[in-house]
Please model this.
Amino acid sequence: MFSVGLVGLPNAGKSTLFNLLTKLSVPAENFPFCTVKPHSGIVSVPDDRVDMLSTISNSEKKVYATIEFKDIAGLVKNAHQGAGLGNQFLNHIREVDLVLLVVRAFEDEKIIHVENRVSPQEDEEILMMEMTLADQISLEKMLPKLQKETRNGDPMTIAKLGIAEQILNKLVNLQPASNFVLNEDTDKDLIKWRKSLNLLTDKPILKLANISHGGKNIDYDADFAMDIKLESEIVDITEEEREELGLEKQSGVNKMIQQCYQKLGLATFLTTGPTETRAWTFKVGWTAQMCAGIIHSDFEKTFINAEVISYHDFLVCGSRKEAIESGKMRIEGKSYIMQDGDVVEFKVGAR
Ligand SMILES: Nc1nc2c(ncn2[C@@H]2O[C@H](COP(=O)(O)OP(=O)(O)OP(=O)(O)O)[C@@H](O)[C@H]2O)c(=O)[nH]1
Ligand SMILES: [Mg+2]
Model:
């Protein structure tokens, strides 16, 4: 499962957001688990399509896609040298697939800011700087070993060293590791190796401004903004009540979960029937055969074909039967690139 780490300065609102997220996670029979550890929680990705298909198919249960969120202790200046929880904190970030920067934009004298001022832009710079310096330290540590290994002339090791040096060059210039882009035709093993370095600034990042609805906020260029405290106090209200409060219909946190999903390069295919309607997560670009393997590893080996109806067609036709009769069902082979919203039935052979 893919995971998102909440990263920010102390008192930015991370734990408030984390608690809000875990309040939302529906503990249900079909659910793998919700709060796994005190600081880690599994959240379902809101998806109207699951609800609609489940009604059409009269499914006994609904299963949503899931993402894991991790609440990480506040980061302070010089964490890369061990300040605050320092390295321990930074190691927690290494484990996640996406970094969600939680940045305080609201003014409130009662809530202490570690730097005694509210400046979201400067806070972002502190966070990025700490992660950049931590990456620099970890790359510098591994370089001597890599250099030694290249002596045997292995082209793969030489290529790795080249990549490491070029990333380090970015970091030394205080740029994130992600600024070093590999050629598209780079060897797959090298791409994998780079990912296995788990550099903090090589991960995708989303920026969330914690604002005060109706209060005073400092301008900040974030990917999205929400009043974390308010949203956590009104989890149960209806869309109409939200509008009366002058809030957007869709809850901020639902939108945020969906954005994380997209930023991770994930998409959903669906299966539906009387037993269950289920959203399955795949990486954009995956083939039908790879997707079959998500349901069951045997399915990938014994894959015959996939019967695919796009969600929109399924909805317009009102049932699988109608969709088939209207010619909306496509038989796709193993190299078909799965699309978000495909409603699928895999045909598989005997083992
Ligand atoms: N006014 C206001 N206060 C908030 C908001 N979000 C969080 N707070 C308050 O800020 C304080 C810190 O919030 P937390 O969520 O614990 O902060 P944190 O980022 O987890 O902090 P650390 O765990 O120390 O790094 C709490 O008293 C919250 O109630 C907000 O949107 N508006
Ligand atoms: Mg906290």
Remarks:
- Residues 3-202 form a domain with the DNA polymerase; domain 1 fold (CATH 1.10.150.300).
- The pocket of magnesium ion (ligand 2) is lined by residues 14-15, 71 (CB under 6 Å).
- The chain is about 40% helix and 20% strand.
